[in-house]
Protein: MaoC family dehydratase
Organism: Brevibacterium sediminis
Amino acid sequence: MTIHDATIGRFFEDYTVGDIYQHPFGRTITEADNVWLTNLTLNTNQNHFNEHFASQNPITGGKVIVNSGLTVAMVLGLSVFDMSQNAISNLAFTDINFRHPVYVGDTLYAESACTEARRSKSRDYAGIISMTTRGLNQDGVTVVSWKRSVMIATRDSGIGQGHFPETADSVSDYS
């Protein structure tokens, strides 16, 4: 029997420039998600919570539109498993583009293309990964995109590894 260590995400060595990483999870946005984030961030734009007001907005299709902060946070979160689970630090977000409205009930997916991978000049235990990430709705329409750079631990750094406790029981206890 082989015991595989508890690991999540990729390390610096696992990225290939030009590869696209389709992130494994999708997430449907609920009305509660939109209202909670809108209230939490004190966003008073009524297009996010007033159906009558939003019905008069030709850009939103006359429907309540999801808070753009939620759209970014959701797509970012969906990308973490593949692109920054082992991040030491976010370094930059640039060129955020909102391309299509997001509505309550939409399901978001994300994918990222690795655009650059280099060893850190100042930290030998890390590399810098640059990527372009985009969020898509259930119809495959891109709703948001951005460029991002992240400092990622190398596998030999030990960062983000070895966190699972050693068992006090024997492996034979599974039989």
